[in-house]
Design brief:
This protein is of the alpha+beta class. It has two domains: 1-7 and 34-101, no CATH class; 111-188, Orthogonal Bundle (DNA Binding (I), subunit A), CATH 1.10.30. Helix content is 19%, strand content 21%. It has seven helices and six strands; from the N terminus they run αββαββαββαααα. The protein has helices at 36-39, 58-66, 111-117, 154-160, 165-168, 182-185, 197-200; strands at residues 42-46, 52-57, 70-82, 85-95, 131-134, 149-152. The protein has a four-stranded mixed beta sheet with strand order 2-1-4-3. Strands 5-6 form a two-stranded antiparallel ribbon. The longest helix is centred in the first third of the chain and has 9 residues, at 58-66. It binds zinc ion. The site of zinc ion has 8 residues, from helix 4.
Length: 208
């Protein structure tokens, strides 16, 4: 992605001000459960280049917009009150200043992340995925790694048990691999708002 060529000024792109969001592997921290009612809404934060950066609580996005550090790109029909004004709940906001992003880190392996990668469907039969299958069974030395775990339905997982794909005559539509890139930094542990999908370049998929 041609991120580093952004900007007409000669100054190199630098991280934003101190209070700018710090997108990174650990940036989209889960909202505190004590404030779940007010922070359950999440907003997709785009860089000035429209590259997805991270997901932030919507209240955080509103603060950025009110401070002119971000602009609204897509809003929900709902309103929230912030600083004595009613503000549309932002679905997508874009930073007004470019923020340089570190090279994407590996997405942590998690059940949700695997479901997201595989579209929430069983890689063997296409049914709704309800479990994680180790392609090479763990009993045969298969690792708990991105290239050996897939989303599977209960039935296929049960049928497959400790057998290999070759023994079953099954095949995978594509080799499982670790997701990478900016889009995936957002998705490892979070439900995807359907309105974000266009920005994330994600296919429409069954929810996991
Ligand atoms: Zn299946």
């Amino acid at each position: 992605m041609p991120l580093t060529v952004l900007g007409s000024s000669s100054a190199p792109a630098r991280p934003g001000p101190r209070d700018a969001p710090a997108p990174g592997p650990h940036a989209p921290a889960p909202a505190p459960s004590t404030a779940a009612a007010t922070t359950s809404r999440a907003t997709l934060l785009l860089n000035a280049t429209y590259e997805p950066l991270c997901v932030v609580p919507s209240r955080r996005a509103i603060v950025l917009v009110l401070a002119a550090k971000a602009e609204l790109v897509d809003v929900a029909d709902a309103f929230v009150h912030a600083e004595r004004v009613a503000v549309s709940v932002p679905v997508v906001v874009r930073l007004t200043r470019y923020v340089r992003v570190p090279h994407p880190a590996t997405v942590p392996l998690s059940r949700r992340a695997v479901f997201t990668r595989d579209g929430g469907t069983c890689v063997y039969c296409g049914a709704v995925a309800t479990s994680i299958d180790h392609v090479v069974p763990r009993s045969r030395g298969g690792g708990n790694s991105w290239d050996n775990v897939v989303a599977a339905c209960r039935r296929c997982n049960h049928v497959k048990a400790d057998r290999s794909l070759a023994e079953l005559g099954w095949s995978l539509p594509q080799p499982p691999r670790a997701p990478s890139g900016a889009d995936w930094r957002l998705l490892g542990h979070r439900t995807v708002d359907p309105r974000w999908r266009g920005w994330l370049g994600m296919p429409e998929a069954a929810s996991a």
